[in-house]
């Protein structure tokens, strides 16, 4: 008799556990995407940024650089791969001969730079791994002007705290007109030796699907920070007024501003 | 059984304090964190539902692929496909898991708990007998129930080791961590290998939890769960030896 009651109890519990497993969170009335939940979860981003910056700072650590034979035979293009914005199409048709990179905002010397001007800046070539937020990785060689050198020529004003990159591609036709790609990074990453404005990929001019004529490389963060089709660089003291105010196209859509993880 | 035990009154059971308050709190924080990490992890996996070994992704030759849909939405957090929110949950509870695990391990080391988990030579010899006992669902009574048996010790040590490696493999997917500690990438043989190892270890821990829950249920669920809530554990005296 005793044994039987025990078995029934076991069965009941097994059923409860199985039932509990099958219940999804939303079934329990918990909204995993509610703003209140996200506000709490986002606190982890600050912790991650401070911890990673503390680990990286003492040695100004460089991202690993790979050998030429490690370069991926296929590098997946992501996001915009052929911007259909008319100004971009005109510049592309013209081989970017009349294209100019604008450097402005909180700088002493605003600049308008052609591709030839950019090639005259201190350059860097690096074979690095590109990590997409989706989870995949590809390796390529990138060559470009060091962002630090370009900003030194433009002479940042003391109030400047971030660098904003405005891009040619409209990635989303949104009602509020905020579908244009843009990104922001802070001055730590802007000054990093591997942060370059790349005009070459694997020894050839940057292909359109990878951001021709110019893309940003921020090697210690995820791919979405590395804006393609860069048209304008601006030194700013905050990014609340840009887009929806979170510091980038994907950041405005819920992704972390600090993408070191 | 020692002689001293035999003169005790023939009580059918006694109550001992099995888990300290700190152990209990850590256990339940770990439970919540593991569940959130697992379900948000499946959400993140679904953004690129394939695995590869090596540094880079061979899109045409995956090691394992659940393309195009990945895991069903009822298993992911949030339920809808939303990588951004999945990452928010994952990294919040990753911090919770790591900090909680550090407190637990610190306590374990400082209070000599490692000795209770580390199998002795005698323990290792008793593995075959322990397997037979488990297969027959014959669980220890009396004083034997006070300490972990060899299979429990090995399972708990494997789970702790799996958590540690899982965390390292997770960190290896971070480009900033790779810049700070390049040896991590070598340890796993590449970022994509680390992603595959992260997934395989998570699968191992799911299997661990399944066996753990089955054992909890089979060896007296109310007593076991109560001991992890209140700390108090009832021990049935071994009638055959009394």
What's the overall average pLDDT of chain A, rounded? 90
Largest sheet of chain A: 5 strands, mixed
Say what the CATH topology of chain B is. Answer: Fumarate Reductase Cytochrome B subunit
Radius of gyration of chain B: 21 Å
The total tally of domains of chain B equals 1
CATH topology of chain A: Sulfite Oxidase, Chain A, domain 2
Structural class of chain A: alpha+beta
How do the strands line up in the largest sheet of chain B?
Answer: 1-4
Number of spatially distinct domains of chain A:
1
Concise synopsis of the structure shown:
The complex is a heterodimer of chains A (261) and B (242). Chain A is an alpha+beta fold and 261 residues long.
Key features of this structure:
heterodimer; A: Sulfite Oxidase, Chain A, domain 2; 5-stranded mixed beta sheet; 10 strands; 26% helix; 23% strand; globular; B: 242 residues; mainly alpha; Fumarate Reductase Cytochrome B subunit; two-stranded antiparallel ribbon; 11 helices; elongated; disordered N terminus
Question: Topology of this structure?
Answer:
The complex is a heterodimer of chains A (261) and B (242).
Chain A: H1 2-22, H2 35-41, H3 43-56, H4 86-93, E1 101-105, E2 111-113, H5 115-120, E3 123-131, E4 137-146, H6 147-154, E5 162-170, E6 180-186, H7 187-191, E7 196-201, E8 204-205, E9 215-217, E10 230-236
Chain B: H1 3-6, E1 13-17, H2 21-46, E2 50-51, E3 64-65, H3 83-110, H4 113-117, H5 121-125, H6 127-135, H7 150-172, H8 175-180, H9 182-188, H10 191-218, H11 221-229, E4 232-236
Antiparallel strand pairs in B: 1-4, 2-3
Helix pairs in contact in B: 2-3, 7-10, 10-11
């Amino acid at each position: 008799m005793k044994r039987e009651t025990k078995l029934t109890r076991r069965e009941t519990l097994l059923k409860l556990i199985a039932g509990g497993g099958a219940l999804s969170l939303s079934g329990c009335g918990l909204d995993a995407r509610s703003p209140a939940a996200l506000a709490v979860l986002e606190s982890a981003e600050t912790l991650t940024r401070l911890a990673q910056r503390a680990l990286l700072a003492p040695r100004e650590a460089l991202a690993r650089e790979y050998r030429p034979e490690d370069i991926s035979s296929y590098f997946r293009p992501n996001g915009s791969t052929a911007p259909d914005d008319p100004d971009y199409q005109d510049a592309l048709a013209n081989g970017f001969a009349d294209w100019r990179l604008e450097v402005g905002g909180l700088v002493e010397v605003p600049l308008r730079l052609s591709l030839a001007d950019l090639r005259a800046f201190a350059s860097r070539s690096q074979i690095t791994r590109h990590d997409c937020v989706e989870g995949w990785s590809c390796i390529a060689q990138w060559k470009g002007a060091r962002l630090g050198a370009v900003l030194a020529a433009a002479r940042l004003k003391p109030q400047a705290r971030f660098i904003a990159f405005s891009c040619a591609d409209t990635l989303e036709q949104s009602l509020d007109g905020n579908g244009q790609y843009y990104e922001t990074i802070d001055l730590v990453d802007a000054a990093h030796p591997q942060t370059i404005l790349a005009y070459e990929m694997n020894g050839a001019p940057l292909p359109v699907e990878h951001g021709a004529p110019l893309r940003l490389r921020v090697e210690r963060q995820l791919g979405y920070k590395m804006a393609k089709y860069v048209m304008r660089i601006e030194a700013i003291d905050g990014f609340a007024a840009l887009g929806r105010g979170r510091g980038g196209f994907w950041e405005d859509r819920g992704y972390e501003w600090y993408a070191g993880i | 059984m020692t002689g001293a035990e035999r003169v005790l009154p023939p009580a059918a059971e006694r109550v001992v304090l099995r888990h300290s308050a700190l152990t209990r709190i850590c256990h339940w924080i770990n439970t919540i964190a593991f569940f959130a990490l697992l379900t948000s992890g499946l959400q993140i996996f679904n953004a690129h539902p394939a695995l590869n070994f090596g540094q880079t992704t061979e899109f045409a030759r995956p090691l394992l692929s659940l393309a195009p849909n990945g895991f069903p939405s009822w298993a992911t957090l949030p339920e809808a496909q939303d990588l951004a929110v999945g990452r928010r949950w994952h990294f919040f509870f990753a911090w919770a898991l790591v900090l909680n695990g550090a407190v637990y391990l610190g306590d374990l080391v400082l209070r000599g708990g490692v000795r209770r988990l580390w199998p002795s030579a005698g323990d290792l010899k008793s593995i075959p007998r322990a397997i037979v006992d488990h297969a027959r669902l014959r669980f220890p009574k009396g004083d034997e129930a006070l300490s972990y048996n060899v299979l429990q010790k090995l399972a708990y040590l494997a789970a702790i080791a799996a958590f540690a490696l899982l965390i390292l493999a997770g960190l290896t997917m971070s480009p900033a961590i790779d810049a700070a500690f390049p040896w991590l990438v070598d340890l796993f043989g590449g970022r994509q290998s680390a992603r595959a190892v992260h997934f395989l270890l998570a699968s191992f821990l799911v299997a661990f939890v399944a066996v753990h829950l089955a054992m909890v249920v089979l060896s007296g669920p109310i007593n076991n769960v109560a001991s992890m809530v209140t700390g108090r554990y009832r021990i049935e005296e071994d009638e055959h030896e009394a």
